[in-house]
Amino acid sequence: MPAAPGPRQGGRVGLPSGGRILTPSFIALVGYCWLIHSYKLPGVGLWIGAALITALLQPGRPRFPAPLLWFGAWILWGFVGGLGSEYPPVVSKHLNDFVKVWLVFFAACNALRTPNQVRAFIICYLAIFALYPLRGILMNVAGGYSHNGRYAWNFIFSNPNDFATLTFLVFGLNMVAFQSATVAWQRWAAMIGAIFMPVAILFTGSRAGFLGLVLFGILVLLRSKQKAKMISLGFVAACAVALAAPPEAWNRIRSLTKVKNTEVLQTEADESARQRYMIWQIAWKMWEDHPVFGVGLGAAPHANLAYALNRDEWALARRRWNTHNTFLNVLAETGLPGFIFFAGIFVSTFRQLAKARKAFENTVPEWSTDIRYLEAGLLAFMLGAFFGVIHGIPYLYIYLAVAWLLAGTFLNTLTPAQSVATRAGGSRRPIRQPIAP
User: Fold this and answer.
1) Cα–Cα distance between 55 and 31 in angstroms, integer?
2) What is the pLDDT of residues 378-424, one digit of tens each?
3) What is the value of pTM for the model shown?
4) Helix axes 395-411, 326-359, angle to 10 degrees
5) CA-CA distance, 161 to 385, in Å (whole number)?
6) DSSP code per residue over 1-51
7) Sign of dihedral through CA atoms 95, 97, 101, 106?
8) Is the CB of residue 151 less than 8 Å from the CB of residue 178?
9) For residue 96, how many other CB atoms are within 10 A of its CB?
């Protein structure tokens, strides 16, 4: 459905609008997201099944965007490599899990058909995250419920590193809402989220989370044409973080300066950093020994134990540890071809985002800024994923679907001639302008 530019209010251009919001597929997808964040009711499979079926019954052909196809190719390669793996039951279980995640990705790409649905889904998703994980960690902070000074919540969000990494995706969407909200309460809610999400990330005590916050801020400031506003908001958030963060969080962040070389790792850095360094070495060795197919999808923890038992210098890693690095995990478990397929998910998403960002850079800079927030959120997530294995859960793929669809919604406001010019790298000056104030 062609999108129309959103209304301009108070100097802001809203997201594109048009089409229905409440459809069976939209309701089912929102219900699924509520369940995987709140865990209030059983029946997650029923909700995503309903989203799949109702999405397929909608008018129009099913969508298969490039990231979805790359993800499917990666799973297929994992199946081929698993045929020769030493851990067939493990590979079989993880293949089944990743197929389910692919179906969630497919449902998200097809359940949101109109610009109004994309916009409403972002608001619903932010509300769900605020009501459960974000509220939960802040209540734990207020009550002093921590583990060695590190805070998190429940379920998948009980791991502080994962909590911080997943929050970057929501933070990117939150900044889109803050930039584009034309309703006062939505803008105020997004501004509160922009302050409290960085606070929550720092309270996790995640060093990757701290680095991700720095990266997010740098990416936004470097590309923003409203640097004064962003610096002011960033200053408020930084003050809130500095005043609220516990000493344990700052101690873990300061330990980043100790991780410089192998000798320091063996004598000065904490046990967590030493273990991670050994596990990364083992994962690299797995890939060197199995460069094409890897050790098998999901088999890295089992292979880690087998490798560590054979070398005394890896004694500290003698457990079924995962690789503590999403990209090393993909390389070790599915080989170099699998890594290329997996990288295609991100490369194709960034290409779509870059195309939309450049199309409106000089004409609707608000939309271009929205895309920068999405890019910054995804890059900060990838930095966090460098320190954890987090590609087997659906949150990332829901974000990728929303980012792809929002970029497509922006591009749908271009006329056919403008779309051709954009693809050809020519003039990107749109004929249709946003509604004047």
Assistant:
1) 14
2) 999 999 999 999 999 999 999 999 999 999 999 998 755 555 455 55
3) 0.87
4) 20
5) 9
6) ---BPPPEETTEEPPPB-S----HHHHHHHHHHHHHHH--SS-HHHHHHHH
7) positive
8) no
9) 10
